[in-house]
Request: fold
Amino acid sequence: MALVDVGDIHLDCERSGSGPPLLLIMGMSGTALTWGEPFLRELRRDFEVIVYDHRGVGASSRLEGPITTAELAADAAALLAALELDSVHVLGISMGGMVAQELALAHPERVRTLALGCTYCGGPRSVRTGEEQRRRIVQAQSAGDRELALRTSWELNVSSSFASDEQQYSEFAARALRRRVAVAVILQQARAVLAHDTSARLSQLSAPTLILHGTEDQLLPLANAQLMAELVPHARVEIFDGVGHLFFLERPQRSAALLREHAAVHA
Reply:
């Protein structure tokens, strides 16, 4: 990872692989490590992969006060400018998918293709995280028990079958412990998610759009993908049956293949 000056802040960024550039935008409480090596390894075969940490995360500049998904999208656009990349393929997941929507709307010339994974558009028809899931998250975060917080996050982010794989959990936990995200930052990111609403503007998206979602997503239910498919012109939808929120951890090869096909069709 290397620090890149982006206006009055800096973002921790890494470029790897070869091919057309692909910007990965991570979700709430995640880091550049959260993508997992199996998924990144698959992507590097066909893309120059660009991962970074949002402000407030890792070595990136501190998060000073509230933030919006539009402001995080401005960070992403400034990062592309600093890296001298005129346009890129974009994958955003969860909160990162909301940032990717704002990026593609504000800077359509910079987005060759858009992939929106396990995310939502906000607005009155979107389905937010359920009450039971929110209760579990709050209890785990407030308990002061790091192991409980990690285990709860794992169980909510993946399918029940994948959650039982202790090797996968160990790798997930190791990545989270290697680069911790402060609770204060997560709370500000959560506020940005709750305030996000592109529902009335998605019809303006011009980038070819791929929507990816798992049927067992407990955090942002599948109905959100179906809604966005209605709102985004000519969107293509790919559903992962029996897969949870972090679909790219459960299906790294299939996820990478879909991005490869999407980029190739719209080259």
Remarks:
- The first strand starts at residue 2 and ends at 6.
